[in-house]
Amino acid sequence: MPSRSSAGSEPGTLFVVATPIGNLDDASPRALATLNAVALIAAEDTRHTRALLARWDIDTDTISLHEHNEQARIPGLLERLRSGEDLALVSDAGTPLLADPGYRLVRAVVAAGLPVRPVPGPCALVAALSASGLPTDRFLFAGFLPAKSGSRKAALVELRATLSTLVFYETPHRIAAALADAAEVLGGDREAWVGRELTKRFETHYSGSLGELAERFAAGDEEERGEFVLIIGGAPAAAAATALDADAVLEALLVELPASKAAKVAAKLLDRPRQALFQRCLELTSKH
Ligand code: SAM
């Protein structure tokens, strides 16, 4: 059990604590005990976290840790851990670091050789996968797709040959556009699933082909308020074969050209982003 400060010279532990994604009953007894016991909670938004803590009668001190101050906070938090204090890291919802702040802090704590312990719990992408009925044996979590359609399509092109199930977080004002672009780039036949407001009062699931869901959302038939997870089936075998073809093209070009030129030519031939092909060139050349 964590404590406000450990006696002696033992360093404290950073507990990475998952909090509910909507339903407060999903807070685990261990998460609550940890948040109650630590010396300080680093929170994405202290006002949001303090409101949650008040619901559970927890009065532990909080400090903000978000995208803009995370780096600056690290030395002070490391110092407190070294002095023996246990700390917790939380985000506004779900598991910290998953499309949320905390990566730089956890990385710094690991690099400093100090203990980190997860206190696992709610996570929208895992909740969505577990209820979607799409294959879960291999999946790729791609976070939020870019806001602008051109960049979003480019990101989807990069994922076109991925065999794994694809998981995205989406905002209410972009879900329809994301479905439309995904149907265009990945093909409307793929299986798709959208989870809205998971664990909350108005939880809704939509499943069908990507094309069908794109049409339903484009027609305004579906509720677009709330929080969304979008899941899309992986590439069919034919698209995987295209990925192999890309390797064959790159291998042939790399015999004559440096990686940057090979990637440039292949990007034109294959209509795929140059940067991804350049990365693949580096992987292929490192194998030889
Ligand atoms: N760290 C969180 C987690 O573990 O899931 C996610 C934080 S991310 C900034 C917030 C996004 O997660 C939302 O925009 C939405 O895409 C997804 N999300 C969070 N809660 C959700 C819920 N209850 N239902 C559906 N999606 C949710």
List keywords for this structure.
288 residues, alpha/beta, Cobalt-precorrin-4 Transmethylase, domain 1, Methyltransferase, Cobalt-precorrin-4 Transmethylase, Domain 2, 3 domains, five-stranded parallel beta sheet, five-stranded mixed beta sheet, 11 helices, 17% strand, globular, binds S-adenosylmethionine
Question: Helices, strands, pairings?
Answer:
Elements: E1 14-17, H1 29-37, E2 40-43, H2 46-55, E3 61-64, H3 70-82, E4 87-90, H4 103-111, E5 116-119, H5 124-132, E6 139-144, H6 149-159, E7 165-170, H7 175-186, E8 191-196, E9 204-209, H8 210-218, E10 228-232, H9 237-256, H10 259-270, H11 274-287
Helix pairs in contact: 3-4, 6-7, 7-8, 9-10, 9-11, 10-11
Bound molecules: S-adenosylmethionine.
Characterize the structure shown:
The chain has 288 residues and is an alpha/beta fold. The chain has three domains: 109 residues, 3-Layer(aba) Sandwich (Cobalt-precorrin-4 Transmethylase, domain 1), CATH 3.40.1010; 111 residues, Methyltransferase, Cobalt-precorrin-4 Transmethylase, Domain 2 (2-Layer Sandwich), CATH 3.30.950.10; 42 residues. 44% of the residues lie in helices and 17% in strands. It is built from eleven helices and ten strands. The strands form two sheets. The chain has a five-stranded parallel beta sheet with strand order 3-2-4-1-5, with helices on both faces. The chain has a five-stranded mixed beta sheet with strand order 6-7-10-8-9, with helices on both faces. The longest helix has 20 residues. The protein is globular and about 65 Å long. The mean pLDDT is 93. S-adenosylmethionine binds next to helix 5, strand 7 and strand 10.
